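Subject: design request, 426 residues
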Protein backbone atom coordinates (compact mmCIF):
# COMPACT_ATOMS: atom_id res chain seq x y z
CA UNK A 1 0.00 0.00 0.00
CA UNK A 2 2.89 2.39 0.69
CA UNK A 3 3.82 2.31 -3.02
CA UNK A 4 0.37 3.41 -4.17
CA UNK A 5 -0.41 6.96 -5.21
CA UNK A 6 -2.42 9.13 -2.85
CA UNK A 7 -5.57 8.85 -4.96
CA UNK A 8 -5.42 5.06 -4.62
CA UNK A 9 -4.75 5.23 -0.89
CA UNK A 10 -7.85 7.37 -0.45
CA UNK A 11 -9.86 4.41 -1.70
CA UNK A 12 -7.96 1.38 -0.41
CA UNK A 13 -5.80 2.26 2.61
CA UNK A 14 -6.89 1.19 6.09
CA UNK A 15 -9.27 -1.61 5.11
CA UNK A 16 -8.72 -4.64 2.89
CA UNK A 17 -11.71 -7.00 2.68
CA UNK A 18 -11.06 -10.73 2.78
CA UNK A 19 -12.98 -13.32 0.78
CA UNK A 20 -16.70 -12.88 1.25
CA UNK A 21 -16.35 -9.65 3.28
CA UNK A 22 -18.01 -6.36 2.31
CA UNK A 23 -16.16 -4.09 -0.10
CA UNK A 24 -17.43 -1.05 1.77
CA UNK A 25 -15.95 -0.42 5.21
CA UNK A 26 -18.40 -1.97 7.72
CA UNK A 27 -19.85 0.06 10.59
CA UNK A 28 -19.04 -1.74 13.85
CA UNK A 29 -21.77 -0.01 15.82
CA UNK A 30 -21.04 -1.76 19.11
CA UNK A 31 -19.71 -0.50 22.41
CA UNK A 32 -18.21 -3.86 23.46
CA UNK A 33 -16.56 -6.97 22.06
CA UNK A 34 -16.78 -10.56 23.34
CA UNK A 35 -13.93 -12.83 24.53
CA UNK A 36 -13.91 -16.43 25.71
CA UNK A 37 -11.74 -16.13 28.82
CA UNK A 38 -10.97 -13.56 31.48
CA UNK A 39 -7.27 -13.86 30.66
CA UNK A 40 -7.87 -12.83 27.05
CA UNK A 41 -9.62 -9.71 28.28
CA UNK A 42 -6.92 -9.07 30.86
CA UNK A 43 -4.20 -9.17 28.22
CA UNK A 44 -6.00 -6.41 26.34
CA UNK A 45 -6.25 -4.24 29.44
CA UNK A 46 -2.52 -4.77 30.05
CA UNK A 47 -1.76 -3.66 26.48
CA UNK A 48 -0.04 -7.01 25.93
CA UNK A 49 -2.39 -8.16 23.18
CA UNK A 50 -4.09 -6.50 20.23
CA UNK A 51 -7.84 -6.45 19.89
CA UNK A 52 -11.00 -4.61 20.77
CA UNK A 53 -12.84 -4.52 24.05
CA UNK A 54 -14.48 -1.09 24.37
CA UNK A 55 -15.17 1.46 21.65
CA UNK A 56 -14.06 4.44 23.73
CA UNK A 57 -10.52 3.15 23.27
CA UNK A 58 -10.64 1.40 19.92
CA UNK A 59 -13.15 0.34 17.30
CA UNK A 60 -12.53 -1.49 13.99
CA UNK A 61 -14.33 1.14 11.90
CA UNK A 62 -12.58 4.04 13.59
CA UNK A 63 -9.17 2.37 13.39
CA UNK A 64 -9.52 1.63 9.68
CA UNK A 65 -10.19 5.30 8.94
CA UNK A 66 -7.37 6.41 11.24
CA UNK A 67 -5.01 4.05 9.39
CA UNK A 68 -6.11 5.54 6.07
CA UNK A 69 -5.40 9.10 7.24
CA UNK A 70 -2.01 8.01 8.62
CA UNK A 71 -1.20 6.51 5.21
CA UNK A 72 -2.24 9.70 3.42
CA UNK A 73 0.02 11.83 5.64
CA UNK A 74 2.88 9.33 5.64
CA UNK A 75 2.70 8.76 9.40
CA UNK A 76 3.19 5.66 11.53
CA UNK A 77 -0.10 5.86 13.42
CA UNK A 78 -3.17 8.03 13.95
CA UNK A 79 -6.07 8.49 16.32
CA UNK A 80 -9.48 9.94 15.53
CA UNK A 81 -11.28 12.32 17.88
CA UNK A 82 -14.80 13.70 18.09
CA UNK A 83 -13.80 17.12 16.68
CA UNK A 84 -10.87 19.07 15.32
CA UNK A 85 -10.75 21.01 18.58
CA UNK A 86 -10.42 17.74 20.50
CA UNK A 87 -7.60 16.71 18.16
CA UNK A 88 -5.60 19.86 18.89
CA UNK A 89 -6.31 19.56 22.61
CA UNK A 90 -5.17 15.93 22.74
CA UNK A 91 -2.16 16.59 20.51
CA UNK A 92 -0.80 19.17 22.94
CA UNK A 93 -2.04 17.72 26.24
CA UNK A 94 -0.49 14.36 25.38
CA UNK A 95 2.94 15.87 26.06
CA UNK A 96 2.17 18.93 28.21
CA UNK A 97 1.10 19.31 31.82
CA UNK A 98 0.80 22.03 34.46
CA UNK A 99 3.95 24.17 34.51
CA UNK A 100 4.72 23.69 30.81
CA UNK A 101 4.81 26.20 27.97
CA UNK A 102 3.72 26.26 24.33
CA UNK A 103 4.85 28.41 21.40
CA UNK A 104 2.18 28.92 18.74
CA UNK A 105 1.68 30.91 15.56
CA UNK A 106 -0.69 33.83 16.20
CA UNK A 107 -2.68 33.40 12.99
CA UNK A 108 -4.23 30.05 13.93
CA UNK A 109 -7.99 29.43 13.97
CA UNK A 110 -9.79 31.47 16.63
CA UNK A 111 -11.01 28.42 18.53
CA UNK A 112 -7.49 27.03 18.75
CA UNK A 113 -6.17 30.45 19.77
CA UNK A 114 -8.65 30.48 22.65
CA UNK A 115 -7.84 26.86 23.55
CA UNK A 116 -4.13 27.61 23.87
CA UNK A 117 -4.36 31.11 25.29
CA UNK A 118 -7.26 30.75 27.72
CA UNK A 119 -8.30 27.16 28.44
CA UNK A 120 -4.79 25.72 28.71
CA UNK A 121 -3.85 28.59 31.00
CA UNK A 122 -6.53 27.35 33.41
CA UNK A 123 -4.71 24.00 33.37
CA UNK A 124 -1.41 25.66 34.25
CA UNK A 125 0.01 25.57 30.72
CA UNK A 126 1.14 28.91 29.27
CA UNK A 127 1.33 29.87 25.61
CA UNK A 128 3.33 32.52 23.79
CA UNK A 129 2.02 33.53 20.38
CA UNK A 130 4.48 34.55 17.68
CA UNK A 131 3.98 36.20 14.32
CA UNK A 132 3.84 33.43 11.72
CA UNK A 133 6.07 35.55 9.48
CA UNK A 134 8.59 36.25 12.25
CA UNK A 135 12.25 35.41 11.69
CA UNK A 136 13.75 32.24 13.12
CA UNK A 137 15.53 34.38 15.70
CA UNK A 138 12.30 36.06 16.80
CA UNK A 139 10.52 32.71 17.11
CA UNK A 140 13.43 31.28 19.06
CA UNK A 141 13.25 34.19 21.52
CA UNK A 142 9.76 33.04 22.55
CA UNK A 143 11.07 29.74 23.93
CA UNK A 144 11.50 29.05 27.62
CA UNK A 145 13.23 26.22 29.45
CA UNK A 146 9.80 24.62 29.99
CA UNK A 147 8.61 24.90 26.37
CA UNK A 148 7.32 21.51 25.23
CA UNK A 149 5.85 22.02 21.76
CA UNK A 150 5.31 24.39 18.84
CA UNK A 151 1.96 24.57 17.02
CA UNK A 152 0.97 26.23 13.74
CA UNK A 153 -1.34 25.78 10.73
CA UNK A 154 -0.26 24.99 7.17
CA UNK A 155 -2.78 27.55 5.89
CA UNK A 156 -4.15 29.76 8.65
CA UNK A 157 -7.90 30.01 9.12
CA UNK A 158 -9.12 32.61 8.08
CA UNK A 159 -6.08 34.83 7.44
CA UNK A 160 -4.74 32.34 4.86
CA UNK A 161 -1.16 32.88 5.97
CA UNK A 162 0.99 30.08 4.52
CA UNK A 163 3.35 28.54 7.04
CA UNK A 164 7.08 28.23 6.39
CA UNK A 165 7.13 24.69 7.77
CA UNK A 166 10.88 24.20 7.45
CA UNK A 167 11.59 27.40 9.39
CA UNK A 168 9.30 26.46 12.27
CA UNK A 169 10.54 22.86 12.30
CA UNK A 170 14.16 23.98 12.41
CA UNK A 171 13.56 26.31 15.36
CA UNK A 172 11.51 23.69 17.22
CA UNK A 173 14.17 21.03 16.77
CA UNK A 174 16.95 23.39 17.81
CA UNK A 175 15.07 23.64 21.12
CA UNK A 176 14.48 19.87 21.25
CA UNK A 177 10.69 20.06 20.94
CA UNK A 178 8.29 18.73 18.28
CA UNK A 179 6.34 20.77 15.76
CA UNK A 180 2.60 20.16 15.46
CA UNK A 181 1.02 21.37 12.22
CA UNK A 182 -2.73 21.63 11.72
CA UNK A 183 -3.07 20.58 8.07
CA UNK A 184 -6.84 20.97 7.81
CA UNK A 185 -7.04 23.46 4.93
CA UNK A 186 -4.27 22.01 2.77
CA UNK A 187 -5.10 18.33 3.40
CA UNK A 188 -2.49 15.70 2.49
CA UNK A 189 -3.57 16.12 -1.13
CA UNK A 190 -1.85 19.51 -1.34
CA UNK A 191 0.74 19.34 1.45
CA UNK A 192 2.32 16.66 3.61
CA UNK A 193 4.03 18.52 6.48
CA UNK A 194 6.11 15.50 7.55
CA UNK A 195 8.09 15.88 4.33
CA UNK A 196 9.12 19.36 5.52
CA UNK A 197 10.10 18.51 9.08
CA UNK A 198 6.83 18.56 11.06
CA UNK A 199 6.51 15.83 13.70
CA UNK A 200 2.77 15.62 14.34
CA UNK A 201 -0.15 16.61 12.13
CA UNK A 202 -3.70 17.37 13.20
CA UNK A 203 -6.91 17.75 11.20
CA UNK A 204 -10.43 18.87 11.62
CA UNK A 205 -11.87 16.04 9.54
CA UNK A 206 -15.12 18.01 9.62
CA UNK A 207 -13.73 20.09 6.77
CA UNK A 208 -12.34 18.91 3.42
CA UNK A 209 -11.77 15.30 4.48
CA UNK A 210 -15.49 14.88 5.09
CA UNK A 211 -16.37 17.44 2.45
CA UNK A 212 -20.12 17.23 2.82
CA UNK A 213 -20.78 18.71 6.26
CA UNK A 214 -22.26 15.50 7.68
CA UNK A 215 -19.93 14.66 10.57
CA UNK A 216 -17.77 16.47 13.11
CA UNK A 217 -14.39 14.89 13.77
CA UNK A 218 -10.66 15.28 14.17
CA UNK A 219 -7.45 13.35 13.64
CA UNK A 220 -3.93 13.28 15.04
CA UNK A 221 -1.16 11.67 13.01
CA UNK A 222 2.33 10.95 14.32
CA UNK A 223 5.29 10.85 11.95
CA UNK A 224 7.24 8.60 14.30
CA UNK A 225 10.29 10.80 13.71
CA UNK A 226 10.61 12.69 16.99
CA UNK A 227 12.96 10.96 19.43
CA UNK A 228 11.07 11.20 22.73
CA UNK A 229 13.66 9.16 24.60
CA UNK A 230 16.45 11.55 23.66
CA UNK A 231 14.71 14.10 25.89
CA UNK A 232 13.24 11.67 28.39
CA UNK A 233 13.10 13.98 31.38
CA UNK A 234 11.16 16.52 29.32
CA UNK A 235 8.65 13.97 28.01
CA UNK A 236 8.47 11.71 31.04
CA UNK A 237 4.84 10.84 30.31
CA UNK A 238 6.11 8.81 27.37
CA UNK A 239 9.48 7.63 28.69
CA UNK A 240 8.70 6.77 32.32
CA UNK A 241 6.20 4.27 33.81
CA UNK A 242 2.53 5.28 33.55
CA UNK A 243 1.22 4.25 36.95
CA UNK A 244 -2.34 4.77 35.73
CA UNK A 245 -1.81 1.97 33.21
CA UNK A 246 0.10 -0.83 34.95
CA UNK A 247 3.42 1.01 34.74
CA UNK A 248 3.71 0.79 30.97
CA UNK A 249 6.54 2.79 29.40
CA UNK A 250 5.12 3.80 26.05
CA UNK A 251 8.39 4.35 24.22
CA UNK A 252 9.72 0.97 25.37
CA UNK A 253 6.61 -1.03 24.54
CA UNK A 254 5.39 0.72 21.40
CA UNK A 255 8.46 2.34 19.83
CA UNK A 256 7.55 4.82 17.10
CA UNK A 257 3.84 4.45 17.92
CA UNK A 258 4.35 5.53 21.54
CA UNK A 259 2.77 8.97 21.16
CA UNK A 260 -0.46 7.70 19.60
CA UNK A 261 -0.70 4.74 21.99
CA UNK A 262 -0.44 7.09 24.97
CA UNK A 263 -3.14 9.34 23.50
CA UNK A 264 -5.37 6.30 23.02
CA UNK A 265 -4.67 4.42 26.25
CA UNK A 266 -4.52 7.40 28.59
CA UNK A 267 -6.24 10.48 27.20
CA UNK A 268 -9.07 8.78 25.35
CA UNK A 269 -9.61 6.52 28.34
CA UNK A 270 -9.91 9.49 30.71
CA UNK A 271 -11.45 12.18 28.51
CA UNK A 272 -13.41 10.12 25.99
CA UNK A 273 -13.66 12.46 22.99
CA UNK A 274 -14.28 9.59 20.64
CA UNK A 275 -16.04 9.78 17.27
CA UNK A 276 -18.91 7.39 16.65
CA UNK A 277 -18.29 4.50 14.23
CA UNK A 278 -21.09 5.88 12.06
CA UNK A 279 -19.33 9.25 11.83
CA UNK A 280 -16.10 7.50 10.86
CA UNK A 281 -17.97 5.59 8.17
CA UNK A 282 -19.25 8.89 6.75
CA UNK A 283 -15.77 10.40 6.97
CA UNK A 284 -14.38 7.46 5.01
CA UNK A 285 -16.87 8.06 2.21
CA UNK A 286 -15.63 11.64 2.00
CA UNK A 287 -12.00 10.56 1.96
CA UNK A 288 -12.57 8.40 -1.09
CA UNK A 289 -13.22 11.46 -3.26
CA UNK A 290 -10.89 13.91 -1.49
CA UNK A 291 -8.36 14.31 -4.37
CA UNK A 292 -11.13 14.93 -6.91
CA UNK A 293 -12.86 17.49 -4.74
CA UNK A 294 -9.65 19.33 -3.80
CA UNK A 295 -8.79 19.76 -7.47
CA UNK A 296 -12.20 21.35 -8.10
CA UNK A 297 -12.10 23.46 -4.91
CA UNK A 298 -8.72 24.89 -5.88
CA UNK A 299 -9.69 25.49 -9.50
CA UNK A 300 -12.91 27.27 -8.54
CA UNK A 301 -11.18 29.30 -5.84
CA UNK A 302 -8.51 30.48 -8.25
CA UNK A 303 -11.14 31.81 -10.66
CA UNK A 304 -13.23 33.36 -7.89
CA UNK A 305 -10.17 35.04 -6.38
CA UNK A 306 -9.20 36.47 -9.76
CA UNK A 307 -12.73 37.80 -10.22
CA UNK A 308 -12.82 39.43 -6.77
CA UNK A 309 -9.32 40.84 -7.15
CA UNK A 310 -10.39 42.68 -10.29
CA UNK A 311 -13.68 44.02 -8.87
CA UNK A 312 -13.92 47.73 -8.19
CA UNK A 313 -15.68 47.28 -4.82
CA UNK A 314 -13.06 44.91 -3.42
CA UNK A 315 -10.14 46.51 -1.60
CA UNK A 316 -8.05 43.40 -0.96
CA UNK A 317 -8.03 39.64 -1.52
CA UNK A 318 -6.06 37.04 0.42
CA UNK A 319 -5.41 33.95 -1.67
CA UNK A 320 -1.95 32.51 -2.23
CA UNK A 321 -2.84 31.45 -5.74
CA UNK A 322 -2.79 35.09 -6.86
CA UNK A 323 0.63 36.16 -8.20
CA UNK A 324 0.58 39.36 -6.16
CA UNK A 325 -0.30 37.66 -2.89
CA UNK A 326 2.22 37.92 -0.07
CA UNK A 327 2.37 34.13 0.23
CA UNK A 328 2.38 33.25 -3.47
CA UNK A 329 6.05 32.26 -3.60
CA UNK A 330 6.06 30.20 -0.40
CA UNK A 331 2.86 28.50 -1.54
CA UNK A 332 4.62 27.42 -4.73
CA UNK A 333 7.19 25.69 -2.51
CA UNK A 334 4.89 23.90 -0.07
CA UNK A 335 1.65 23.74 -2.08
CA UNK A 336 2.61 23.51 -5.76
CA UNK A 337 -0.64 21.78 -6.77
CA UNK A 338 -2.94 24.30 -5.10
CA UNK A 339 -3.65 25.70 -1.66
CA UNK A 340 -7.32 25.26 -0.74
CA UNK A 341 -10.76 26.56 -1.64
CA UNK A 342 -10.88 29.32 0.97
CA UNK A 343 -10.53 33.00 0.12
CA UNK A 344 -10.66 35.98 2.44
CA UNK A 345 -11.31 39.47 1.14
CA UNK A 346 -12.42 42.92 2.18
CA UNK A 347 -14.77 45.40 0.58
CA UNK A 348 -13.98 49.09 0.26
CA UNK A 349 -17.08 49.87 2.31
CA UNK A 350 -15.71 47.97 5.33
CA UNK A 351 -17.82 46.10 7.83
CA UNK A 352 -21.18 47.59 6.80
CA UNK A 353 -20.57 46.70 3.16
CA UNK A 354 -19.57 43.18 4.19
CA UNK A 355 -22.87 42.71 6.00
CA UNK A 356 -24.88 44.01 3.01
CA UNK A 357 -22.92 41.76 0.66
CA UNK A 358 -23.45 38.62 2.74
CA UNK A 359 -27.13 39.30 3.31
CA UNK A 360 -27.63 39.71 -0.46
CA UNK A 361 -26.25 36.30 -1.43
CA UNK A 362 -28.75 33.77 -2.77
CA UNK A 363 -27.05 30.45 -3.54
CA UNK A 364 -24.07 30.93 -1.22
CA UNK A 365 -24.90 30.09 2.40
CA UNK A 366 -23.99 32.14 5.45
CA UNK A 367 -22.68 29.36 7.67
CA UNK A 368 -20.13 28.67 10.37
CA UNK A 369 -18.84 25.76 8.33
CA UNK A 370 -15.97 25.95 5.88
CA UNK A 371 -14.23 23.64 3.40
CA UNK A 372 -17.33 21.78 2.25
CA UNK A 373 -18.76 20.92 -1.15
CA UNK A 374 -21.18 23.86 -1.03
CA UNK A 375 -19.95 27.44 -1.18
CA UNK A 376 -20.30 29.21 2.17
CA UNK A 377 -19.46 32.63 3.57
CA UNK A 378 -18.74 33.93 7.07
CA UNK A 379 -17.71 37.14 8.83
CA UNK A 380 -14.86 36.06 11.17
CA UNK A 381 -14.89 39.12 13.45
CA UNK A 382 -18.59 38.54 14.18
CA UNK A 383 -18.54 34.75 14.13
CA UNK A 384 -15.52 32.43 14.58
CA UNK A 385 -13.27 35.08 16.16
CA UNK A 386 -16.00 36.90 18.07
CA UNK A 387 -14.33 36.19 21.44
CA UNK A 388 -11.20 38.15 20.46
CA UNK A 389 -10.52 41.80 21.22
CA UNK A 390 -9.29 44.20 18.53
CA UNK A 391 -5.63 43.58 19.36
CA UNK A 392 -6.05 39.81 19.19
CA UNK A 393 -7.95 40.14 15.92
CA UNK A 394 -5.09 42.13 14.45
CA UNK A 395 -2.54 39.53 15.63
CA UNK A 396 -4.66 36.78 14.08
CA UNK A 397 -4.73 38.64 10.77
CA UNK A 398 -8.47 39.31 10.98
CA UNK A 399 -9.71 42.79 10.09
CA UNK A 400 -13.21 43.99 11.09
CA UNK A 401 -14.45 43.88 7.52
CA UNK A 402 -12.85 40.60 6.46
CA UNK A 403 -15.11 38.10 4.70
CA UNK A 404 -14.18 34.42 4.61
CA UNK A 405 -15.44 32.75 1.46
CA UNK A 406 -15.25 28.97 1.20
CA UNK A 407 -15.57 28.05 -2.45
CA UNK A 408 -17.41 24.81 -3.15
CA UNK A 409 -17.56 22.51 -6.14
CA UNK A 410 -20.58 24.06 -7.89
CA UNK A 411 -20.10 25.36 -11.43
CA UNK A 412 -17.84 28.39 -11.22
CA UNK A 413 -20.20 30.46 -13.40
CA UNK A 414 -22.96 30.10 -10.80
CA UNK A 415 -20.62 31.02 -7.95
CA UNK A 416 -19.38 34.16 -9.68
CA UNK A 417 -22.92 35.14 -10.72
CA UNK A 418 -24.04 35.05 -7.07
CA UNK A 419 -21.00 37.04 -5.97
CA UNK A 420 -21.65 39.61 -8.70
CA UNK A 421 -25.29 40.18 -7.69
CA UNK A 422 -24.37 40.56 -4.02
CA UNK A 423 -21.51 42.96 -4.79
CA UNK A 424 -23.92 45.21 -6.69
CA UNK A 425 -25.94 45.60 -3.47
CA UNK A 426 -22.99 45.97 -1.09
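Subject: RE: design request

Done. Sequence follows.
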Amino acid sequence: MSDFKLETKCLHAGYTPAKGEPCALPICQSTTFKYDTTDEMGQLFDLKAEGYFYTRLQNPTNDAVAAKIAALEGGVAAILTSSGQAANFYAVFNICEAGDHIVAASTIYGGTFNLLGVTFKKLGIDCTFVDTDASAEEISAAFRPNTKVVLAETIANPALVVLDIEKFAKVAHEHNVPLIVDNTFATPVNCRPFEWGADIVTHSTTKYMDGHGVQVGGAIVDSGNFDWEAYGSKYHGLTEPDESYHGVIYTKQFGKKAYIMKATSQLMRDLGSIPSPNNCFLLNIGLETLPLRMERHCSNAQKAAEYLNAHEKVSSVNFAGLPGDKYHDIAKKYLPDGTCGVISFELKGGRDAAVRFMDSLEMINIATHVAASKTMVLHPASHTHRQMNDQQLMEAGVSPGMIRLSIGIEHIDDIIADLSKALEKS
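The chain is about 40% helix and 15% strand.
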